[in-house]
Amino acid sequence: MIDSTQTNHDSAPPVTLRIHADALRHNLARFRQLAPRSKILLPVKANAYGCGLQTLFPVFQKNDVDVLGVANCNEAVELRALGWQKPVLNLGGFFRGNIQSILDHQISASITDLWQVNELNAAASGATVRVHLKLDLGMGRIGIRQNELPDLVSALKAAPNLQIDGMFTHFPHSGPEAAPFTLAQNENFVRISHELINELQLERGSVTLHAANSYSAAFFSQTHHDMIRPGILFYGYYQSESDRVQFNERFGFRPALELVATPISVRTLRRGDGISYASLYHVTEEQETVAVLPLGYADGIPRALSNQITFGRHPLRGRVTMDQIILGNAEGTSPIRLLGEGLPSLEYWGELSHSFSYELMSHLGNRIQRVLVD
């Protein structure tokens, strides 16, 4: 026998991601303390790490961020449409079909392949295009390799329309456990970038050098250079639960996200009743009141959390499905918090689901309403 109650919250969004602006401002201030002489580029790729680019835009506008970084030209165009007038750097390279957008929207382009120099210079036709040179010094992903540097110099000397505003690299290892590798790569970056500045007869003060992501900015002051690029830690999250436990007292970053869902149904189940697909859980007490929440793995709740986690006093019962999860110990139809202060951390979600905070944030679905809380 099942006794059920349909909830009635027609005026409230069923699932809301509350992003706390005070936490973001605090985290930004912490990075300014850690790297007081460096400018800040905030990576806002992948819809601001899943938080919503448009939702967070007021934070970027009001807190004196120097540069915003994106993964592709479409994201840069979106920022321009929102009203961002400061530099926006496309960190991820570009296709030939993006060149006109780079020119039209004054996007700072990353040179990641040699062909880009000649084609971008030709398309500029007398105009000035701002570029950053991406150097691949260990990531093995995108960027100019060391054996390509002579050809790069030759191409740039024949490209008068390109203004070299910066040079950068990306660390494949950036935590304290990889200090020797990271610091060696950093020294290599400093050496090569200064060689390029000399060979191209650039003024050192006109070229912004940047290499530090969140972890290297936090742990290694040697990597700060002219600008840092704090990503995941700007939002208050670490790569793993063990990192959060080990380092957060030292750094004091504050998680910015709070996930809240309103039950779509509350029902009382009896002993032995199965819950969700494959009856992964059976009620063990005489009866249990459960809440059905209208979000699931399509919204970013990992299926691997099935039967594995408790949100406050509400254990997740049974299988996570595409659109719904079921929580035990339900009390009425009030909204239930799934993420936020006093609840299992996002990093802990990652530990249970063999994932990590970056992936979990970027998988938060578009059915979730984003709200900036100031």
TrEMBL record:
It catalyses: L-alanine = D-alanine. Substrate binds at residues 141, 322. One of its GO terms (biological process) is D-alanine biosynthetic process. It is an enzyme of class 5 (isomerase). The active site is at 45 (proton acceptor), 277 (proton acceptor). It holds the Pfam family Ala_racemase_N. The modification N6-(pyridoxal phosphate)lysine is found at residue 45. GO terms for cellular component: cytosol. Catalyzes the interconversion of L-alanine and D-alanine. May also act on other amino acids. HAMAP family: Ala_racemase (MF_01201). This is Alanine racemase. It comes from Turneriella parva (strain ATCC BAA-1111 / DSM 21527 / NCTC 11395 / H). The lineage of its organism: Bacteria, Pseudomonadati, Spirochaetota, Spirochaetia, Leptospirales.
